[in-house]
Amino acid sequence: MARYTRLTEPIALITLNNPPVNALSSAVRSGIVDSVSQALKDDQVKAVVFCGENRMFSGGADIKEFSGSMSGPPLVRMIHSIEASEKLMVAAIEGVALGGGLELALGCHYRVANTKARLGLPEVTLGFLPGAGGTQRLPRLTGITAALELITTGRQISAQEALQLGIVDQVTEGNAVQAAMELALSVIGQPLNPRRLSLRPPVWSADVDSVCEVALARVKQHSRGAMAPVACVQAVRAAAMLPYSKGMEKERQLMDTLFRSSQARALQYAFFAQRNAGKWSLPNGARWNNTKARDVQRVGVIGLGTMGRGIAVSLVKAGLSVVALESDAKQLESGKKAVTAMLQRDAQRRGVGSPLHLLTFALSFHQLKDVDLVIEAVFEDMNLKKRVFSDLCKVLRAGTLICTNTSGLNVDELAKVTDRQHLVVGMHFFAPAHVMKLLEVVYGSRSSPEAVAVAMALGKRIQKVCVAVGNCPGFVGNRMLKLYMDQSLYLLEEGATPEQVDQALEEFGFAMGIFKVADLSGLDVGWRVRKASGLIGPDIDPVNPSRWRLGQRYCPLPDMLCQQGRFGQKTGRGWYLYNSPGSKEAKPDPEILNFLEDYRLKYGITPQRISSQEVIERCAFSLANEGFRILEDGIAAGPEDIDVIYLFGYGWPRHRGGPMFYASQVGLSVVLEKMEHYHRIHPDVPSLEPSRLLRRLVAEGSPPIQQWRNHIKNLHSQL
Ligand SMILES: CCCCCCCCCCCCCC(=O)CC(=O)SCCNC(=O)CCNC(=O)[C@H](O)C(C)(C)COP(=O)(O)OP(=O)(O)OC[C@H]1O[C@@H](n2cnc3c(N)ncnc32)[C@H](O)[C@@H]1OP(=O)(O)O
Ligand SMILES: NC(=O)C1=CN([C@@H]2O[C@H](COP(=O)(O)OP(=O)(O)OC[C@H]3O[C@@H](n4cnc5c(N)ncnc54)[C@H](O)[C@@H]3O)[C@@H](O)[C@H]2O)C=CC1
pTM for the full model? Predict the structure, then answer.
C-alpha cells in the first residue's frame, strides 16, 4: 500500500499504492508510517520523496472508510510527524493532490508538481473541512483570501496557479519524481524550520474580519443551509488569529461536529451516487461493463432553438464535428449567430483557439448523410417529431443512431416510424444545455444495449452526468416534477402565497423556489403542454375553469395567469412582479395576493395557515413517493439514479442527498405516515397515496438506502 524504495542517491522514495486514486486508506497510512520510520532509521538516507503509483499522487482520504469505524494511524498525527522529521521530506505531485493528499504534501518541506497536476481541498463538497491541518497550513502559505476561496469552494487548481499562490515550489514539464529528487539533492542540509508551516505565526492582517465577513456572506448565499462552508470560514479565521496548535484545536472541534453530520452523510452519498450512475444496467441484463460503445465523431443536431443551440455548443466544445440543421433560413441564421457567439465567448474565456471549423450549418437533411448520430431538438410535437424521424431514415446511413431530446414524449412511439428501432434512444438534456450537467439517456423497449452505451459514452465525453432511465411519460425527472408542481399549486389554493412556498423551499436549500423557477422558465411553456395534452380545451369555461380534470383534482391557477398574459420574467409579471420584462429581481405582487383571495372565494375554499413544514413535506415527500413508484416500475435502476437526476437537473440541495436519500434520512415510516395523513385529507389527489414499495420497505424494517435495490429485485421477481 506504500512501497519503500532505497535509491542510490541518499534518498528514499515512498510510493503510495492504492489504485485507482491512491486514496489514503488505513493500509496506506500504515504503509507510510512504516516507510517513514524505515527512512529515519537509515543513516544513509538524507531525504524522502513521496509520490503516487501510476503518476497519481493522491485523491485524499478514502471516503469509503468514513462510514465505518476509522482505524489505522490518524492522518493528522502522521502528517505532523512527517513535517517534524529531521530528514528532508519532498512531495512529487503528479495527477492529483486532493484533500488529505494535498494536506500530506503541505506537511512536506518542499512540493514539486508536474504541469498537468491538479491540486485542491475538496472536503467542503463532502460536508466537512480539510481536517488534517489543511485549514491551518494552507493560509500560512497563501494568505487568508486565497485560502478562504480554495477551502470554501473546494476548487481544484492547476500546478501553474499553485505555483503562483506559493503552494508548490516548482513546476516541471517532466517527471515530478525526478525533479523532486534533484530539488532534494540541492537543498539537503539546509535548515528545515523555515519550511515547517506549523511553525509559522498566524497570518493576521488588519482586514481579517471584513475578509471573513465577505466570505461568510458569499458561502451563505451560494450554498444555502450548508454547514461545512461556514465552518471552513471559521477554521481559516482561526489560522489568522491563533497559533498553530490552537488553530488545530479549532479545526478539530469543527471537524467533530461536521464529520458525522447528516449533511456530510448526504454529500458523501451524492459523491458515490454520481459515480454509480455511470455504471448503468438495463432490465435485460446489459450493463456498462458488458456492452461496447462505438465511436462517434460527427453529430447532427436538428432544431437550433433553446435546446439545440446548447447541445451543439456542448458537442463542439468536446471536439466533435456538428452539422446543425434548421427548418428555414431565418431560424438558421438566428441559431448560427447564437451558437457562434457562445463558442467564441467560451474560447476567449478559456484562452483557446476558436472551434468554429467543427460546425456546419444546414437546411437540407441530405447534409446529415455522413453523421454517426443525430440529436433531434425540434418543437415538442409528436407528429412533427415523427415526420422528422421518418425523413431522417431516408438519408442516414444504416447504423446511424437517432436520438430525441423530447422532455417526455414516448420514445417507443417515435422509434416505430423508423427503420431502426434498436438505434433510437432519448437524450434528454436540461436547459441551458451547455451549462446543465444532467443527461437522461432514455431506453425504449427496442433500444439496443449498444445504442444506450453510445449515448452514455457521448454524454460522458461532453462532460454530462448521464443516467440511463426507462421510457414513461416525463421519464424520471419530469414525471416526478409534475407532482412537486401540483403540490405547490394546491398549497396556493389552500392558503399559501408564492413567496411563502418559495421561502420554505429556499430555506430547505433549493437555490430558487418553484414559483421563481416557473417565472424564469416561462409559464407559457407548461400552458402549451397542457393544451396539447387535452387538459385545456374549448370545453373549459375560461372564467370559472373546473378544478377537476381527467378524473382528478386540477389547479387552473397557472392557466388563469397565462390568460392574463403573465408569462413570468419575460413579460415582467408572473407569480411575481418584475421591474420590466426580462428583469430578474422577483418582487411579491399584491395583485397576485388579491387574485388568490378572489379565487378562493369563488371556489368556496377556506384559506388555511400553511406551515413551512407542510410545504416541505408535501413537496419533498411527494417527489420521493413518485420516486418509489418509478423504482417499482423499473424506470430507474436504483434510488441513487433518481437522486443524481434531482441533484444535477433540478437544483435539489446537494447537502440533502436527493429526494430518495432525504426520505431515508427522515425515516421511511415517517414519510409513510405523512403520505397517509395527506392522502386522507386530500383523497382527490391519487398521487398522495403511499406507493407500494414505500409500504413494503417500511414493513421490512426500513432498510438503509444501499439495500433498496435488493428489495426492489425481490419485488420484481414476485410480480
Ligand atoms: C465524532 C467523530 C469525530 C471524527 C473526527 C474525525 C477526524 C478525522 C480526521 C480525518 C481528516 C481527514 C481529512 C481528509 O483527508 C479528508 C479527505 O481527504 S476527503 C477526500 C478528499 N478527496 C476528494 O474529495 C477527491 C474525490 N475524488 C475525485 O475528485 C475524483 O475521483 C478524482 C479527481 C480523484 C479522479 O477522478 P476520475 O478520474 O474522474 O475518477 P472517478 O471520480 O470516477 O474515481 C475513480 C474511482 O475512485 C474512487 N475514488 C475517487 N476518490 C476517492 C476517495 N478519495 N476515496 C475513495 N474512493 C475514491 C471513485 O469512487 C471511483 O471508484 P468506483 O468504484 O469506480 O466508483
Ligand atoms: N426548453 C427547455 O427547457 C427544454 C426543452 N426540451 C425539449 O427540447 C425540444 C426543443 O425544445 P426547445 O429548444 O425549447 O424549442 P424551441 O422552440 O426553442 O426550438 C425548436 C426549434 O426547432 C426548429 N424546428 C422546428 N421544426 C423543424 C424541422 N422540421 N427541422 C429543423 N428544425 C425545426 C424550430 O425552428 C426551432 O428553432 C422539445 O422537444 C422540448 O420538449 C427538453 C429539455 C428542456
Answer: 0.95
Give start-end residues of each CATH 3.90.226.10 domain in the chain: 2-260
Kindly report the average pLDDT of the chain as a whole number.
Answer: 96
pLDDT digits (tens, 9 = 90+) for 534-543: 899 888 888 8
Pick the CATH number of 291-475 from 2.40.160.210, 3.40.50.1000, 3.40.50.720, 3.30.160.20: 3.40.50.720
Residues listed for the chain: 719
Q: Among this protein's residues, is 123 annotated catalytic? A: yes
- Give me the residue label for grid cell 476558436: 354
Whether 238 is in the pocket of ligand 1, judged by its Cβ within 6 Å, is no
The beta strand positions in 200-305, using DSSP E, are 298-302
Distance 85 CA to ligand 1 centre (A): 27
User: What is this model's ipTM?
Assistant: 0.95
Q: How far apart are CA 363 and CA 687, in angstroms?
A: 45
Of residues 232, 211, 231, 69, the one with CA closest to residue 150? 232
pLDDT score of 585: 95
Rounded Cα gap, residues 394 and 379, in angstroms: 21
Q: 2-260 belongs to which homologous superfamily?
A: 2-enoyl-CoA Hydratase; Chain A, domain 1 (3.90.226.10)
- Catalytic one of 103, 440, 614, 689: 103
23 CA distance to ligand 1 middle (Å):
7
CATH 3.40.50.300 matches 496-602: no
- Report residue 135 CA to chain centroid gap: 25
- Residue-wise pLDDT tens digits, 419-448: 999 999 999 999 999 999 999 999 999 999
* pLDDT at residue 538 in the model: 87
What top-level class would CATH report for the domain 612-718? mainly alpha
The ligand whose atoms approach the alpha carbon of 339 most closely is 2
From the CA of 389, the nearest ligand is 2
Protein residue with least CA distance to atom 30, ligand 1: 59
Is the CB of 133 inside a 6 Å radius of any atom of ligand 1? Answer: no
Which listed ligand is nearest to 118 at the C-alpha? 1
Cell representation of residue 105? 504534501
Nearest ligand 2 atom, CA 328: 35
Residue 449 Cα to ligand 2 middle (Å): 27
